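Example protein
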Amino acid sequence: MNSKYKKIETKIIHSGEPHPLIDGAVSMPIFQSSTFEYWGADKYEDVRYIRLNNTPNHIALHKKLASLENGEEALVTSSGMSAISTTLLSLLRPGDHFLVQDCIYGGTFGLITKDLKTLNISYDFFDGNDINSIKEKIRPETKLIYLESISNPLMKVADIKGIVKFARSNNLTSIIDNTFATPINFLPLDIGFDLCIHSCTKYLNGHSDIVAGAVIGRGEMIGKIRDKLNRLGGSLDPHACYLLHRGIKTLAVRVRYQNKSAMMIAQVLESNPQVEKVNYPGLKSHPNHNVASTLFGGYGGMLSFELKGGLDAAERFLKRVRIPIVAPSLGGVETLITQPARTSHASMTPEERNRMGIGDNLIRISVGLESTEELIDDFIQALQN
């Protein structure tokens, strides 16, 4: 999408805003109406109706999101999983095959291994840092490749440039979930990805008060996904649109603070004798640090770590922390801490989690906007024997 604004900080504030302002309102009003007057639309999808994702609140968001990710078009949905499921259902047919990164969000894993499987859509998982492992799994019926910019919950960073190059040379649609990195730290469409997905519940909204999703990218593909979404009904309501629109405007300042805070916390945890391993791509010890440093403008506000002492140590730590809220989800202004084996990846079998490297002693932290010093002090006291 062409934008008259060059810098993302300006796009965040001004892209997609109505011109002229609606009755002079600086903030986008909430159009709390399911139905709009018919103005002679020739096509069904142009009839103004909430389920068709074309109300004034939807349109403003679509323009803003497309501008942020440098995409041709964007589409908001009722949740991140709605964005993922509708996208995959729009682009895959029975008999198709696709390739998936081997460490992904549990909800996406379940969709792929349970629901798509029943539709005769096959898949193979690949090691994101081994292009040869991808080459070995491609078939004549392979249609697309799917990965996360920073994987959930182990914070892996794949050979993203190599993967998108592979996808292009093999005529595969390339899709990346950019939720953890955000457009502040990484712009996947700029290096050749066809589609970029977000759980807007997380960083884009940033205040833990809505559930929403988005898919951004090539106009032709967004059109197909919009048609499917209009039939499936996963539209975002106007009030949630308003809250997401408002939340996006502080994205840059929030994410940059969280980048810095997460780095400091990761360094402290890595030096603590009670911690077995820290997963954060900003650390030089991270196996994908060099890849992340080449790709990203920041390493994100998410980290995870493994505690010595197994499950008992993890449960003790969660009971001792005072500032973070023990809760699933991520990306908000408050620090959230969780045990993936019991939340985000609980739907997986123990065997599946073990194959991915998700143990019961793994703790995931979504760093918020509290004082970094106070958070560090809190984690240190919670780790003491």
Remarks:
- The mean pLDDT is 94.
- The chain has 14 helices and twelve strands.
- The domain at 252-383 is CATH 3.90.1150.10 (Aspartate Aminotransferase, domain 1).
